[in-house]
Write a structure and sequence with these properties.
By secondary structure, this protein is mostly helical. The chain is built from 13 helices and no strands. Helix 5 packs antiparallel against helix 6. The chain is flat. The relative contact order is 0.14.
Length: about 325
């Protein structure tokens, strides 16, 4: 386990460096003069020179890459070209609402999705299974944007039960009602996909020889289901859970835009519109690092649940 973890951590570190280099290279490959583009439609020579000096565009690309990577190691992402604030401060402010949404979504998602999958598998072919399968397939087909607009139209505008946006709310946790509609949208599709994966894995596990042997040994059905079948049934869903966590940590742009939540997704859209390249680069690195970390955790969990997976690697 330790050797496998060390190998995956080393690979993850290399992937984070590769993402940082790629983010820098993509900005470098943008056509035209970055300083002129960032100066606006009527560029002022003094402003262009200021931007050029601020972004060190007069230095060789490799030197700027080395300086930028060195800054990342100390948490220095550079400064915003629009506000002048350190990019790290902007990211720290934007990541808080995204972490709140992501954390609450995962806390609710895992028991709900796994519970639905287990119930459907244990009632295979009967009405609970058919109801859960029909519900998950139907809900999964609805795009997040359409579901968000529908929920706002019904529960915020029509019934006036919940606030439609987070505008004017100092903190998401200060007014929990603001979180209800975004969480429903964020939970909808992941619950469907993970529940179906758990159902399929549970059906296969319940029909396996080791579960049959556990039953012959007189082990209670509850322990057979939750101690023997469930760990193996959840293993195929771990990758999907990791993708969901990555999707959430990366900032769900549609949900944050509809409900006006100032998270990472909204910060990325604003930075792209303002051509604030240091902020775009910083967010790209954060997204890449979160993807690597989440998938690393998923690999370790899957290996722990089913160590025999290492044989196939």
């Amino acid at each position: 386990m330790l050797a496998y973890a060390a190998k995956r951590i080393g690979l993850g570190a290399a992937q984070v460096v590769a993402v940082a280099v790629l983010a820098f290279a993509l900005v470098e490959l943008l056509p035209g003069d970055a300083a002129v583009a960032l100066a606006g439609d009527q560029p002022d020579p003094a402003n262009i020179q200021r931007i050029r000096e601020q972004m060190h565009l007069d230095e060789p690309a490799l030197a700027r890459l080395a300086d930028w990577l060195g800054g990342l190691l100390t948490g220095d992402f550079g400064a915003s070209l629009v506000s002048g604030r350190p990019v790290a401060d902007l990211l720290a402010t934007a990541v808080q609402p995204t972490l709140v949404l992501a954390g609450l979504t995962l806390i609710l998602l895992l028991p709900l999705a796994i519970g639905l999958g287990v119930v459907a598998a244990r009632r295979q072919g009967r009405w609970p299974d058919r109801l859960i399968t029909t519900f998950t397939v139907g809900l999964y087909s609805v795009p997040e944007f359409a579901l968000a607009v529908l929920l706002v139209s019904v529960f915020a505008i029509g019934l006036a039960w919940l606030p439609p946006t987070a505008v004017g709310v100092p903190s998401l946790l200060s007014e929990p009602a603001v979180l209800v509609l975004p969480l429903l949208v964020l939970l909808a599709r992941p619950i469907c996909s993970i529940a179906r994966l758990v159902r399929a894995g549970m059906i296969e596990a319940l029909d396996s020889e080791y579960v049959a042997h556990a039953r012959r040994a007189g082990i209670s059905e509850r322990r057979v289901v939750f101690a023997h079948a469930l760990p193996n049934a959840v293993t195929p869903a771990v990758a999907q859970i990791a993708r969901t966590a990555d999707w959430l940590l990366g900032g769900v742009i549609v949900v944050e835009s509809v409900f006006v939540i100032p998270g990472l997704g909204t910060a990325l859209v604003d930075a792209v519109n303002a051509r604030d390249l240091p902020v775009v680069q910083g967010i790209a690195v954060v997204f890449g690092a979160s993807t690597v970390l989440v998938n690393l955790a998923a690999d370790l969990v899957a290996f722990r649940l089913a160590p025999r997976m290492e044989v196939a690697r």
